[in-house]
Amino acid sequence: MKKLVSAALLAGATSASAAGQFSSLASYDYVFSKPSTATSHTASVINTLVEYTYPRTLSIYGGFSFILRDSFESTLTLGARLYTPTPMFYWGGSVPIWSYVGAGTFLLDNGAYYPEAGLRIGITNNTRLDVFLKVFNSDDTAYDKHATIGVGLTF
Question: What pLDDT score was predicted for residue 47?
């Protein structure tokens, strides 16, 4: 029975990966709100990621993030997003716009995770623009309760 279940899972994973799409994702997060208890001046985050979008409503991403604060810091980033299955509306009648919610994590020394919400704008068939909000949560007060607004480009 275990072999049958394993074969079914492998077949399902293979068909899902064959139907999905890999894309480069570059984004910039600007810290617009932080608590008065923050122990450093965290200003922004630059992300260079690879995103895998499944054919339905899920995408996963991972890569490197560069945190600009009192000192420069880099980290690995992992996350996932759930999109609306069809565009919420079309801007100008031809540009599709989807909404999404997601969650991600920075694999720092103390770790940081964030929920996110945003809009994905389909500029062309291969290029998309993301506008999003994130709120970082961490044991490290340099990142905890920092809210960001960001923009990203997927190509």
Answer: 97
